[in-house]
Amino acid sequence: MPRGLFITFEGLDGSGKTTQIMRLASWIKKRSTLGKSVAPLDKLAPKRLIVTRQPGGTDIGDRIRALLLDSRSTGLDPTAEMVLMFADRAQAIAEIIEPALEAGTIVLCDRFTDSTEAYQGGGRQLGSETVLALHRIVCGNLQPDLTLMLLPSVEASLVRARRRNTRESKQTGQDEGRFELEKESFHGRVRQKYREIAAREPGRVVLIEGDLTVEEVHEKIVGAVSSRLNLMRTPALLPSA
User: Fold this and answer.
1) Cβ atoms 187, 157 nearer than 8 A
2) Is 8 left (phi over 0), alpha (psi -120 to 50) or beta?
3) Around 53, how many Cα atoms within 13 Å sit in the side-chain half-sphere?
4) pLDDT digits over 67-119, tens only?
5) Residue 25: CB partners within 8 Å, gap ≥ 6?
6) What are 17-29's pLDDT values in tens digits?
7) Buried-most residue among 1, 51, 62, 65 (CB within 10 A)?
8) Integer Cα distance of 27 and 6 in angstroms
9) 8 Å CB contact between 12 and 187
10) Would the CA dihedral through 200, 205, 208, 210 be positive or negative?
11) Which helix (H) or strand (E) holds 106?
12) Is the CATH code 3.90.180.10 the one for domain 6-231?
Protein backbone atom coordinates (compact mmCIF):
# COMPACT_ATOMS: atom_id res chain seq x y z
CA MET A 1 0.00 0.00 0.00
CA PRO A 2 1.32 3.49 -0.84
CA ARG A 3 2.20 5.83 1.99
CA GLY A 4 -0.70 8.01 3.10
CA LEU A 5 -1.14 11.72 2.48
CA PHE A 6 -0.37 14.35 5.08
CA ILE A 7 -2.38 17.56 4.64
CA THR A 8 -2.06 20.39 7.16
CA PHE A 9 -4.15 23.49 7.78
CA GLU A 10 -2.49 26.68 8.97
CA GLY A 11 -3.58 30.21 9.77
CA LEU A 12 -4.43 32.75 12.40
CA ASP A 13 -6.68 31.87 15.32
CA GLY A 14 -10.21 32.47 14.11
CA SER A 15 -9.32 31.92 10.45
CA GLY A 16 -11.86 29.09 10.08
CA LYS A 17 -9.44 26.16 9.96
CA THR A 18 -11.60 23.80 12.00
CA THR A 19 -14.66 24.41 9.82
CA GLN A 20 -12.67 23.93 6.63
CA ILE A 21 -10.97 20.74 7.84
CA MET A 22 -14.32 19.14 8.54
CA ARG A 23 -15.66 20.29 5.15
CA LEU A 24 -12.66 18.82 3.34
CA ALA A 25 -12.99 15.55 5.26
CA SER A 26 -16.65 15.33 4.23
CA TRP A 27 -15.75 16.12 0.60
CA ILE A 28 -13.14 13.35 0.47
CA LYS A 29 -15.50 10.83 2.06
CA LYS A 30 -18.33 11.80 -0.28
CA ARG A 31 -16.13 11.42 -3.36
CA SER A 32 -15.16 7.97 -2.14
CA THR A 33 -18.78 6.97 -1.49
CA LEU A 34 -19.86 8.11 -4.96
CA GLY A 35 -16.96 6.29 -6.59
CA LYS A 36 -15.52 9.45 -8.07
CA SER A 37 -11.82 9.55 -8.84
CA VAL A 38 -9.55 11.86 -6.85
CA ALA A 39 -6.08 10.67 -7.82
CA PRO A 40 -3.94 9.77 -6.02
CA LEU A 41 -6.51 9.25 -3.25
CA ASP A 42 -7.88 6.35 -5.29
CA LYS A 43 -4.99 4.08 -4.40
CA LEU A 44 -5.08 5.01 -0.74
CA ALA A 45 -7.95 4.15 1.54
CA PRO A 46 -10.31 7.15 1.51
CA LYS A 47 -12.44 5.58 4.21
CA ARG A 48 -9.29 5.58 6.31
CA LEU A 49 -9.09 9.24 7.04
CA ILE A 50 -8.21 10.82 10.36
CA VAL A 51 -8.48 14.41 11.57
CA THR A 52 -6.18 15.57 14.34
CA ARG A 53 -4.88 18.82 15.79
CA GLN A 54 -1.88 20.45 17.42
CA PRO A 55 -1.39 21.07 20.19
CA GLY A 56 -3.45 18.10 21.30
CA GLY A 57 -4.78 15.01 19.60
CA THR A 58 -3.21 12.60 22.10
CA ASP A 59 -3.78 12.19 25.83
CA ILE A 60 -0.40 13.73 26.58
CA GLY A 61 -0.88 16.38 23.91
CA ASP A 62 -4.24 17.44 25.34
CA ARG A 63 -2.59 18.03 28.72
CA ILE A 64 0.11 20.13 27.05
CA ARG A 65 -2.59 22.00 25.11
CA ALA A 66 -4.43 22.89 28.31
CA LEU A 67 -1.27 24.44 29.71
CA LEU A 68 -0.31 26.31 26.54
CA LEU A 69 -3.70 27.80 25.71
CA ASP A 70 -5.05 28.60 29.18
CA SER A 71 -4.93 32.36 29.76
CA ARG A 72 -3.95 31.65 33.37
CA SER A 73 -0.58 30.33 32.12
CA THR A 74 1.06 33.68 32.62
CA GLY A 75 4.81 34.21 32.62
CA LEU A 76 5.54 31.28 30.31
CA ASP A 77 8.94 31.88 28.73
CA PRO A 78 8.79 32.01 24.90
CA THR A 79 11.47 29.33 24.54
CA ALA A 80 9.66 27.08 27.02
CA GLU A 81 6.46 27.66 25.04
CA MET A 82 8.21 26.64 21.81
CA VAL A 83 9.70 23.51 23.36
CA LEU A 84 6.30 22.46 24.72
CA MET A 85 4.86 22.82 21.22
CA PHE A 86 7.52 20.45 19.91
CA ALA A 87 6.99 18.00 22.78
CA ASP A 88 3.32 17.81 21.79
CA ARG A 89 4.29 17.42 18.13
CA ALA A 90 6.78 14.63 18.78
CA GLN A 91 4.10 12.67 20.65
CA ALA A 92 1.55 13.24 17.87
CA ILE A 93 3.98 12.07 15.18
CA ALA A 94 4.91 8.94 17.11
CA GLU A 95 1.40 8.04 18.26
CA ILE A 96 -0.86 9.18 15.41
CA ILE A 97 0.65 10.73 12.31
CA GLU A 98 3.48 8.39 11.33
CA PRO A 99 1.56 5.12 12.00
CA ALA A 100 -1.38 6.46 10.00
CA LEU A 101 0.79 7.47 7.04
CA GLU A 102 2.53 4.10 7.05
CA ALA A 103 -0.90 2.44 6.92
CA GLY A 104 -1.88 4.48 3.84
CA THR A 105 -4.27 6.74 5.74
CA ILE A 106 -5.07 10.34 4.81
CA VAL A 107 -4.16 12.63 7.71
CA LEU A 108 -5.74 16.08 8.02
CA CYS A 109 -3.98 18.04 10.75
CA ASP A 110 -5.02 21.36 12.27
CA ARG A 111 -1.60 23.07 12.64
CA PHE A 112 1.93 21.70 12.38
CA THR A 113 5.42 23.23 12.51
CA ASP A 114 4.42 26.21 10.36
CA SER A 115 2.36 27.36 13.35
CA THR A 116 5.39 27.24 15.61
CA GLU A 117 7.45 29.16 13.09
CA ALA A 118 4.68 31.77 12.79
CA TYR A 119 3.69 32.12 16.45
CA GLN A 120 6.95 31.50 18.29
CA GLY A 121 9.37 32.32 15.47
CA GLY A 122 7.44 35.38 14.28
CA GLY A 123 5.08 36.41 17.05
CA ARG A 124 7.54 35.78 19.89
CA GLN A 125 10.43 36.87 17.67
CA LEU A 126 12.52 33.74 18.29
CA GLY A 127 13.28 33.50 14.57
CA SER A 128 12.75 30.80 11.97
CA GLU A 129 16.20 29.23 12.20
CA THR A 130 15.71 27.83 15.71
CA VAL A 131 12.23 26.50 14.91
CA LEU A 132 13.37 24.76 11.72
CA ALA A 133 16.42 23.28 13.48
CA LEU A 134 14.18 21.82 16.19
CA HIS A 135 11.84 20.48 13.51
CA ARG A 136 14.71 18.59 11.89
CA ILE A 137 15.82 17.15 15.24
CA VAL A 138 12.50 16.48 16.98
CA CYS A 139 10.26 15.69 14.00
CA GLY A 140 12.76 13.97 11.71
CA ASN A 141 12.04 16.82 9.27
CA LEU A 142 8.63 15.31 8.44
CA GLN A 143 6.96 17.57 5.86
CA PRO A 144 3.29 17.78 4.88
CA ASP A 145 2.41 16.81 1.30
CA LEU A 146 0.18 19.86 1.14
CA THR A 147 -0.45 22.83 3.45
CA LEU A 148 -3.59 24.97 3.17
CA MET A 149 -2.90 28.36 4.73
CA LEU A 150 -5.90 30.55 5.60
CA LEU A 151 -5.06 34.21 6.14
CA PRO A 152 -8.02 36.55 6.62
CA SER A 153 -7.30 39.96 8.13
CA VAL A 154 -5.99 40.11 11.69
CA GLU A 155 -9.03 42.12 12.77
CA ALA A 156 -11.59 39.64 11.41
CA SER A 157 -9.67 36.65 12.80
CA LEU A 158 -9.41 38.08 16.32
CA VAL A 159 -13.10 38.99 16.45
CA ARG A 160 -14.07 35.42 15.53
CA ALA A 161 -11.49 33.80 17.82
CA ARG A 162 -12.45 35.86 20.86
CA ARG A 163 -16.17 35.28 20.25
CA ARG A 164 -15.52 31.52 19.92
CA ASN A 165 -13.42 31.38 23.08
CA THR A 166 -16.07 33.24 25.08
CA ARG A 167 -18.79 30.88 23.83
CA GLU A 168 -16.80 27.71 24.49
CA SER A 169 -15.68 28.90 27.92
CA LYS A 170 -19.33 29.38 28.92
CA GLN A 171 -20.32 26.00 27.50
CA THR A 172 -17.41 23.84 28.66
CA GLY A 173 -15.56 25.84 31.30
CA GLN A 174 -12.35 25.48 29.27
CA ASP A 175 -10.17 28.52 28.75
CA GLU A 176 -8.20 28.52 25.48
CA GLY A 177 -7.86 32.25 24.98
CA ARG A 178 -4.23 32.86 25.97
CA PHE A 179 -2.94 33.79 22.52
CA GLU A 180 -5.95 35.98 21.77
CA LEU A 181 -4.93 38.20 24.68
CA GLU A 182 -1.83 39.27 22.76
CA LYS A 183 -1.70 42.69 21.09
CA GLU A 184 -2.52 43.11 17.42
CA SER A 185 1.17 43.75 16.75
CA PHE A 186 1.89 40.17 17.86
CA HIS A 187 -0.74 38.77 15.50
CA GLY A 188 0.53 41.02 12.74
CA ARG A 189 3.99 39.45 13.10
CA VAL A 190 2.39 35.99 13.03
CA ARG A 191 0.54 36.82 9.83
CA GLN A 192 3.65 38.23 8.19
CA LYS A 193 5.67 35.14 9.07
CA TYR A 194 2.96 32.94 7.56
CA ARG A 195 3.21 34.94 4.33
CA GLU A 196 6.99 34.47 4.36
CA ILE A 197 6.56 30.71 4.71
CA ALA A 198 4.10 30.64 1.80
CA ALA A 199 6.51 32.60 -0.38
CA ARG A 200 9.42 30.36 0.60
CA GLU A 201 7.58 27.08 -0.08
CA PRO A 202 5.10 27.58 -2.93
CA GLY A 203 5.35 23.93 -3.91
CA ARG A 204 3.85 22.85 -0.58
CA VAL A 205 1.80 25.80 0.64
CA VAL A 206 -1.43 27.07 -0.92
CA LEU A 207 -2.16 30.55 0.43
CA ILE A 208 -5.83 31.54 0.70
CA GLU A 209 -5.83 35.17 1.70
CA GLY A 210 -8.55 37.71 2.42
CA ASP A 211 -11.87 37.96 4.24
CA LEU A 212 -13.78 35.37 2.23
CA THR A 213 -16.99 33.50 3.01
CA VAL A 214 -16.91 29.93 4.31
CA GLU A 215 -18.12 28.64 0.95
CA GLU A 216 -15.58 30.67 -1.01
CA VAL A 217 -12.74 29.29 1.10
CA HIS A 218 -14.05 25.73 0.74
CA GLU A 219 -14.18 26.07 -3.05
CA LYS A 220 -10.60 27.29 -3.12
CA ILE A 221 -9.51 24.42 -0.90
CA VAL A 222 -11.23 21.79 -3.04
CA GLY A 223 -9.67 23.31 -6.14
CA ALA A 224 -6.23 23.37 -4.54
CA VAL A 225 -6.48 19.81 -3.23
CA SER A 226 -7.69 18.44 -6.56
CA SER A 227 -4.99 20.30 -8.48
CA ARG A 228 -2.10 19.50 -6.18
CA LEU A 229 -2.99 15.83 -5.79
CA ASN A 230 -3.29 15.36 -9.54
CA LEU A 231 0.17 16.90 -9.89
CA MET A 232 1.43 14.31 -7.41
CA ARG A 233 0.07 11.45 -9.52
CA THR A 234 2.71 8.82 -10.30
CA PRO A 235 2.59 5.40 -12.01
CA ALA A 236 2.79 3.77 -8.61
CA LEU A 237 -0.28 5.66 -7.46
CA LEU A 238 -2.14 5.17 -10.74
CA PRO A 239 -4.86 5.85 -12.07
CA SER A 240 -6.32 7.69 -14.99
CA ALA A 241 -9.68 9.13 -13.99
Assistant:
1) yes
2) beta
3) 12
4) 999 999 999 999 999 999 999 999 999 999 999 999 999 999 999 999 999 99
5) 49, 51, 108
6) 999 999 999 999 8
7) 65
8) 16
9) yes
10) negative
11) strand 106-110
12) no
